[in-house]
Structure formats: C-alpha cells, structure tokens
Amino acid sequence: MRYLPIHIDLQRVDILIVGGGPMAEAKLRTLLATPARLFVIADTISQNIKSWAKAEKLVWESRAFKLSDLEGKQLVYAASGDGTLDNMVAELARQRGLLVNAADDKAGSNFFSPAIVDRSPVSVSIGTEGQSPGMARLIKSEIEALLPANLGKTTEYLGTIRKQLPKKRPQFSSRLSFWKTMFKGQNLASLCTFDQTGLVGKAEGHLNIDEVLPAQGRVALVGGGPGNADLLTRQAVRVLETADVIVYDRLISETVLALGRREAEYIYVGKKPNGPATLQESINAVLIKHAQAGQHVVRLKGGDPLIFGRADEELEALEKANIPFDIYPGITSASAAAASIGRSLTTRGVNTSLTLLSGHDAKGYAEHDWARLAQPKARAVIYMGLGASSSIRAQLLAHGAEPDTPMTIVENASLPTQKIVASSLGMLCTDIARGDITGPAILMLGYKPRSVKASPKPSTKIHEQNHEYQKTQGQGPASYNGQQLTQRKSRLSEPAFSLDQSSFQGFG
User: Fold this and answer.
1) Last residue of some domain: 161, 180, 210?
2) Which of 168, 238, 413, 452 has its CA 20 to 30 A from that of 339?
3) Which residues are CB-neighbours of 395 under 8 A, at least 6 positions away?
4) Catalytic-role residue among 168, 202, 271, 461
5) Is 168 a residue of the active site?
6) pTM > 0.85: yes or no
7) Do residues 234 and 169 both lie within one domain?
8) 437-459 pLDDT tens trace
9) Residue 271: active-site member
C-alpha cells in the first residue's frame, strides 16, 4: 500500500482550486460537502461554479494564478485542464510542502481524492492509487447499495451513547463488553430501524442487566484456510476484527493476520516439523490465561481446525476451565488443492468415499488400512505426508497398488507460491525431490491435474510425468473454462453485513 488512506479535519481549512472547468467542478462537488473554505482561481468558470460562488459557497477570483495564492492553503487542486499550468501549480505547491492533487496526473500528485460513500458521520472512501477512478466509482455504487440510507443518523445516536458511557462503565473491558452485547444479533439493516429513543432504551436495558456481571472472556477456534485471505469465511473475518488476543500457528499467512485488529495482542505458537515447537500444554495455558482475564481470544489455525488440528485437545482444556468457546470452520487444504488441479474430490462412478489421512501421528509415521488404499479406485488426500512419502509409497506398493497410480503433489495450495507436480506412485519420491517441494504440501492419491490445452498466454502450466512443476500467478481458486486454466481472486457478495457472530456456541 503506497498511499495511506486518512480522514483530514477540514474545519477552518483553506483549499485552493486552480481552474474553473469540468475538472475543477468535479473536485468541488465533493469539497462543497465539507466545512472547508474554498478559493477558486480561474479566468472563466462554469455555470455551476458561478452559482456556487453566488450562493457564497466558495470564493472566486477571475484572474491568472500567482505564487501568493498558495499562502495559507493546506490543500491545493491543480485542475485547470491546462497541463502546463497544472504542472507548474503542482510543482510550486510541493516545493512548499503542501498536499496537492493534479488532475489526471498521478506523478504530479501526492494525494488523491477518493470516491466517497457519504453517510455522515460515516464515510467510506475508495481509492485505487490513481490507477482507475472508474473502478473506484464502480465499487462505490456497490457499497452504496449495501448501506442503509439512515446509517448516519443511527451512528450519531450511538455516538451520543458512547459519550455518556464512561460515566456508567469506567472500565474499558466493561465498555467493550457492552458494545458486543449491543450489537449481538443485529445487522446494519435491523440496527438502523431504531430511532434515537429506541436505541437509548436498548442501551439502558443492556447497562442495567450487565452492569453487575464480571467480564466474561471466551475463545474462538477459527480456521485460517490454506493461506489465501480471500478464502476465509465472513464469520472468520468478523471475529478477527474484534479479537483482543490472536494465538496463531506457523501456517497462518501474513495476509490472513492482517485482517486482525491492529490493537490486538498477537501470540505465535507455531510448530515446525523437526524443529522448534510450542508444546500443546503451553498453547492451552495461553488460551485459558487470556480468556480468564476477560479477553476475546482467537485461536487461529491453518486450514480447518477440525481436521488434523488437534482441536479436541484445546477444547477439552477450555471445557475443564469452564471457558465458553465458538468454532468457526475454515476451508481445508484438501479442498484448496482439488480446486487448484481442477478436480472434484468425489466423482460419481469412480469413488463413493474419500479418505483424509495424516502422514504422521504422535508416535511417528501413521499406520493406515494400506490394503484398502491400494485398491484401483481408492482416493485419498494425505496431510503432512512429505516426510513420510517414502514410507507411504512403499506401503502402497507392497499392498498391491500399481506404480502408475496417479499422484499429485500440491504445495502452498491457493497461494501465489503454489506448485503442482503431476506424478505417479512409482515416481513420487523422485518427483518431490526434482520439483523442489519443501512444504507445506498435500499428496493426492488417485488424482491428476485436469489437462490444459495450449494458449497464446497460458497463466498456468502443469507438466505431467516430466518432473517439472508449475507456479501459479494469481491468488484465487483455479477457474476452468475448458480451454485455459486461470487464477481468479474474488469475494462473493452477500446481501447484507451482519454484526452477529453466530456459530456453534460451546456452553451456550
């Protein structure tokens, strides 16, 4: 992020706009909604700007720009449409350390005017770092449709309650608990149906009920998915945004961590294969300690915490300590890997069952029903199988599996660093070494990547049985159109935002 989005207080601020045509008018339409004092310098101005000047919404001087116009100004807009003039104004403003926006000139600007969704005092600004104002406007229209028209009034009512709250709830943790209770079970649409009296009544009700109750901490067990932040559930994102403490594993990506609240405490409890590892008992103790202190703790695990995530051990510890918990499942790596190779995990007429298995257990290499897994139509996805790949290969071959049984290795599924190696059981260990697969990786027994026809600009190449690997260029799940394999990054829209963190509620 090169440009930091900030909201500037424009009360008693003087802004200079050089220009009086369409470019200047477009800037003024936004600026007129602020309390700033606006000064327009231009020989001629549009009819709309004339009407605004006549209504004393701005000051217009019909003349050429001069250096002294910059004195006392905090923001400058060079918007005459004359490139030479705008460049000169922008350069002079920058020399004086002023913030300047030169219309249609990214290099000449040190700030940009975002597209704004105005529900004052709520404002949502959308910027593209000057790359595509059209895209910003498109995003604005989508957000406009989602936000209730009376959101601003509701926010003002809540602001009044917030000003009075410290007198009734001196402790910050108590105030935080109050707001969580106020918003629980609400979405924006339902919250904005309250008038001021209704909201005040709702707040008083919660204050009277909760005032004598001690702060109650809880733990949320959250699936961080395979690492691509776009694959997190909305529930996971919401709980990260409200966490006091985030306890996370080695496989949690930086982009997923970035969704957490900046003020939260981040505690790393990773376990590296054949390396340093945080003891499970220590992790349990961390969760209990912070929850007992009344904090909202997020236990963030890669993939789905309910699949090879030792979730039961942590939940049992919380249960013994009488700490309530929520569970927010995530997308497991098997699903992400299947999407990456364009294959369904189950196919009618081929396999009516799927085995998810771990290459390791507490005692070392895990033992499985190798005879069943060696059957021709058996399908399995193996987690934590790199280190055990030689043993897995030997066991399957010894129990009758064919050497040419398809095997696919997917490393860093769904991430930009993703690798896919199409192999066979007989060549598994060789292809892992030649593909420079170091993990984390998924081994897929009985699966091979969907074939891809050549295209002028292929975004993905999958090489089967030739010991080469592919690296994806995007960040989303693979998308297939029958001819070309591409990578798509997207979020599915939902009809409304929700403030409710409904989930499986441990202990009610």
Assistant:
1) 210
2) 238
3) 368, 370
4) 271
5) no
6) no
7) no
8) 987 899 999 999 986 443 333 33
9) yes
